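Possible regression after last week's pipeline update?

I re-ran a chain I had predicted before the update to compare outputs. Posting the input and the new output here so someone can diff against the archived version. Not blocking, just want to make sure nothing changed silently.
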Amino acid sequence: MPITTDAAATERLNRFADLLEKWNASLNLVAPRDIPVLWQRHIADSLQLLPLLPGSLDRAVDLGSGGGFPGLVLAIASGVPFDLIEADQRKASFLRTAIRETGAPAAVHACRIEAADLPPARLVTARALAPLPRLLPLAARLLTPDGTCLFLKGARAGEEIADASPNWDMTLDRVPSGTNPDGVILRISALAVKSSG
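New output (post-update):
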């Protein structure tokens, strides 16, 4: 399903794509073979989260932002302020430059996710970061009790859910990916550690 953005957002996303291509030569933000298909494989993949964003969202947190997917792309396209957490200092420098060049409402936190000192948000996003059993504890501390997680996952999502289920209570929806035939978007709410006993 194609996701459309307004002309101003599309222009900013084009600026972001040009910047990423320039920085990619030295930083390897995406695989070099992905540059010709950057829009479909990375930008459109991130944009498909737009219709799933909770209403009246005042801010969101993106874990392991890397080259800006999905957090920076969503900030540019939606106008929702995003806190981007990226431990790699060079990638964090790219993200800061991209924010400045595109005027995106985002802030970069160059630290490990476990060390990020941020108030919880109603939305936490991540893409290709870690398997669900490792991802959920990282997300839970940054998520409000009424919050939602949107995680872009690949073919092993089912295994990850099975591995995480013994330790976590959650309401989980699987939304088929519109850009990856093997992919799925996991929409998770009511996330809580299972009580023992």
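Follow-up from reviewer: compared with the archived run. The chain has a mean pLDDT of 95. Marking as no regression found.
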